[in-house]
Amino acid sequence: QLQYSKNRTKNLRFNYRGQTNAPSITQLQDVIDNSNQLNIRNGNAALKQEFQHSFNLFYTNFDVVTFKNFFVSLNGSFTQDKIGNSVTQNTGNTRITVDGIVLIPGAQYSKPININGGINISGFVNYGFPIKKPKSNLNFTTTLAYNRDVNMYNSVKNYTNNYVLGERISYNMNIKEAFDLVFSSSSTYTFARYTLDNGQNGDYFTQNFSIEPTYSTKSGWIFGSDFDLTINKGQAAGYNQTIPLWNASIAKTIFKDKSGEIKLSVFDLLNQNKSITRTVQQNYIQDTRTQVLTRYVMLTFTYNLRKFAGKGQQQMPPFMKGMFRGNGQPRMMRMG
Question: Percentages helix, strand, coil for the chain, rounded to the nearest 5?
Answer without folding.
Answer: 5, 60, 35
